Amino acid sequence: MDRRDFFKAVAITGAAFTIQRSEAMEVLTQTINTPKGGKPDLVAVIGGEPEEMFRRAIKELGGMKQFIKPGQKVVVKPNIGWDKVPELAGNTNPKLVAEIIKQCFAAGAKEVTVFDHTCDDWQKCYKNSGIEAVVKNAGAKIMPAHLESYYKQIDLPNGVNMKKAKVHEAIVNCDAWINVPILKNHGGANLTISMKNHMGIVWDRGFFHQHDLQQCIADICTMEKKAVLNVVDAYRIMKTNGPRGRSESDVVLAKGLFISPDIVAVDTAAAKFFNQVRDMPLDTVGHLSKGEALKVGTMDIDKLNVKRIKM
Known about the structure:
It holds the Pfam family DUF362. Residues 74-272 form the DUF362 domain. It comes from Bacteroides faecalis. This is DUF362 domain-containing protein. The protein is 28% helix and 21% strand. By secondary structure, the chain is an alpha/beta fold. The chain has a single domain (3-310), classed as 3-Layer(aba) Sandwich (Rossmann fold). Strands 1, 2, 3, 4, 7, 8, 9, 10, 11 and 12 form a ten-stranded mixed sheet that branches. Strands 5-6 form a two-stranded antiparallel sheet. Helix 2 runs parallel beside helix 3 and helix 8 packs across helix 10 (287-293). It starts with a helix and ends with a strand.
């Protein structure tokens, strides 16, 4: 697939909006078609349904057994923050969440737990997002996160502004967790992706907004128990009025997915993709560079093996 064909493929995936051609697409149009020597560091997929794109992407990374081991207690952490139906792109796509849970169990997970510290009423968010139903159907557990008693304090010795945080006990007690954000606009952080999704595992979110939001997002990502995998849902993208959105006019059907163990790299790739629907310079998403400075991951996509796939 050459660059021209790939741009065309990207453009036709947007039913409500034409994704424009720009240099921001460079992560998906590198001359690297197959990784050099071994598995890719990052996989980018376009053109399929959420579950199909994940199946293809995780296969390229060697399968879920590379990340989840038999007998482990696993957490899958989507964005379920808003009382919104899937078509409004406020939350992670339920089809993607379901597929990840199924693959965790297939890899031998003892149990899988799903939760989010929601902004709207948690029961309405869980139900109307479609995520509660797919979690239960897949045999996983869904946990609330609306009370401070669910959280335990951890230290962040490498944080700059944030040195401690109260983190949900599901994360503290699990053996491995998978970070599954949706790519969308955010009024405060400009973009919310994998790094920003960590605000859904903490209790004290007010501290973030009072002590440099971008720096605190980077700080929480220095926590010792990092996600073994970051899966960015870019099937539908909320391009404006995020993070809650107002109507379907805020939403672009982009049919994308990005996956990597490197949280800064996957967010950088997703941010470049977002630039196809709305101009968002990477330097305005300050937690990316701050995370790189804290050695959480890299923004230098060109130094990674990137596998790009059109379905």
